[in-house]
Write a structure and sequence with these properties.
By secondary structure, the protein is α/β, with parallel strands linked by helices. It is built from four helices and five strands; from the N terminus they run H-E-E-E-H-E-H-E-H. Helix content is 38%, strand content 36%.
Length: 114
């Protein structure tokens, strides 16, 4: 499954939120926008797979939290059953930043019956 599939499956069911919400913001050079993977009334959630591409999840969710005033959460999908280098780096950085992190085994989502 792709990250987009996990976002679609988990956002409403796990967080009671709305997927792919867009927020605009001003910066010294003009205006831009970000898209939040999942957002509910209290939290913004960045979803990532246990891959190198998810190393920016913490920065994305911290920035989204700053814009929205909501609590940041990182949700990592463990696709290989190993707490590897990317999970380690993201988890350590999230702990240092005080951001909640959830690591969910992919098989729970792929086949919830086991």
């Amino acid at each position: 499954m792709t990250e987009a599939h996990y976002i679609a499956l988990l956002c409403a069911s796990l967080f009671g939120g709305e997927a792919e919400r867009t927020h605009t913001f001003d910066y010294p050079g003009g205006e831009a926008a970000i898209r939040v993977d999942c957002e509910n009334d209290r939290r913004v959630v960045e979803v990532g797979l246990d891959k190198r591409s998810s190393l920016d999840s913490l920065q994305q969710v911290l920035f989204a939290a700053e814009i929205t005033g909501k609590e940041p959460v990182v949700l990592l999908i463990d696709t290989d059953g190993i707490f590897g280098r990317f999970e380690w780096r993201i988890a350590r950085a999230a702990n240092i930043a005080g951001v909640s992190i959830i690591i969910l085994p992919a098989e729970l989502v792929d086949d919830p019956t086991g």
